[in-house]
Amino acid sequence: MGFSIKDVAEQAGVSVSTVSRAFTRPELVSKATRTKVLRIADDMNFSISRSAMVLKSGRALRVALLMSDHIRLWFSASIIEGLNQVFHANGYDLSIFQISSIEERREFFDMLPIRRNADAVIVASFDVDTEEISQLAKTDVPIIGINCVLPTSGFTAAVNIDDDQGSKLLARHLIGIGHRHIAYIRTDRAVTLHFSVQQRYESFAQACAQAGVELTTIVIAEGEDRIGRAMTELLTLPQMPTAIACQEDGIAIPLMFQLSRNGLRVPYDVSVVGYDDSFYAHDVGLTTVRQDPIAMAKAAAAKTLDLIGNGATDNPFEMFPAQLLVRSSTTEPRTDADRR
Asked: Where along the chain do its domains lie?
């Protein structure tokens, strides 16, 4: 025999309406009470149907996540994990939309007001134009950015890693230990969206220019052979750089293995730095900048729920500081005497 909402209320020592609110309007119930009610309901295998929750709340109980990268990648997977931890506990589903072009992005925003199938939109790592933001504003749908360029230009809220600070820390580290011939490897995506990694490159290049340091930029297209293409570009340069900065750890780590296969020792022949502190960065001793996408995603999810429930949130634009982690992949450049 199944349990009813009344049974759950009696067991939890609360009213039936409180049980209902714990499912449909969690922001109106204290965290302790909501946790207790949901635990007891789970023990009793009781649930309020999603359709009933949607009708009662007048909401879709769904948040749309727009991503440009593959879901399997470290950053994307971490963002999804952090968001889901918060949204699932509060009765919200997460719908993921992979956006690979401006046209796909515009189509999404054109259709959203018609479908009305999301209570908020989260955008990870690329821009949204003012026309698209105004479309959302007309339907009272908040838009929240994660690692987006210039988030205050129209987003309702945003969380960002300080890419300017992080890239300058990397550049100053390499310059400070004596490197004057540095290469920067970045991707050239087959779309025209403006990604947050652009800020990393611009800040790194600016720091090098200010120090009078030569910077060689290598641009590689996305694809399974991108590291091989980067290695080819490096080996065909007139002079091998003494240090290589990579847009992300996902480039830096496999590049370290490619360098080794080509007889170049890291860091003795060439220093390598990444960005992210992702999987295996610690294991291979990669000097990098740490960011915590799970923590950023949780903060973005909390702001999203505030905006859905209350129309406002404390500290809507939050900047997470960057942290430089110096490991064994960097050292001072070899002198001519060292090479003999």
From this structure: 5-48, 62-161+293-321, 163-291
Q: What is the mean pLDDT of residues 264-275?
A: 97
What would the CATH number be for the domain defined by 163-291? 3.40.50.2300
> β-pairing, 243-246 with 271-273?
parallel
The DSSP 8-state label assigned to residue 267 in this structure reads: T
What does the buried/exposed string (b/e) look like for 212-244 if buried means 16 or more CB atoms within 10 Å of the residue's CB? ebebbebebeeeeebbeebbebbeeeeeebbbb
pLDDT at 134 over 90: no
> Taking a C-beta distance cutoff of 8 angstroms, is the pair 276, 321 a contact?
no
**For the ranges 31-45, 129-143, 151-165, which has the lowest average pLDDT?**
129-143
Fold of 62-161+293-321: Rossmann fold (3.40.50)
Quickly tell me which residue has 């199944």 as its tokens.
Answer: 2
- CA dist 107 and 312 (Å) reads 27
Structural contact between residues 66 and 123, judged by C-beta atoms closer than 8 angstroms: yes
Domains 5-48 and 62-161+293-321 share a fold: no
Q: Could you give the CA distance from residue 96 to residue 49 in angstroms, rounded to a whole number?
A: 22
Q: How many CB atoms are located within 10 Å of the residue 2 CB?
A: 7
Given 3.60.15.10, 1.25.40.20, 1.10.260.40, 1.10.1200.10, which CATH number is that of 5-48?
1.10.260.40
Question: What span, in angstroms and rounded, lies between the C-alpha atoms of 271 and 174?
Answer: 8
Angle at 311 between CA 306 and CA 313, to 5 degrees: 45
Q: Give the Cα separation of 124 and 144 in Å (integer).
A: 9
Provide the pLDDT for residue 55: 44
Query: Which residues does 311 contact at the CB level (< 8 Å), separation at least 6?
Result: none
And the tokens for 166? 């992080």
> What distances in angstroms separate CA 56 from CA 3, 91, 229, 308, one per listed residue?
21, 13, 55, 15
Tell me the H-state helices in 139-247.
Answer: 163-176, 197-210, 226-235
> Is 80 exceeded by the pLDDT of residue 12?
yes
DSSP 126: B
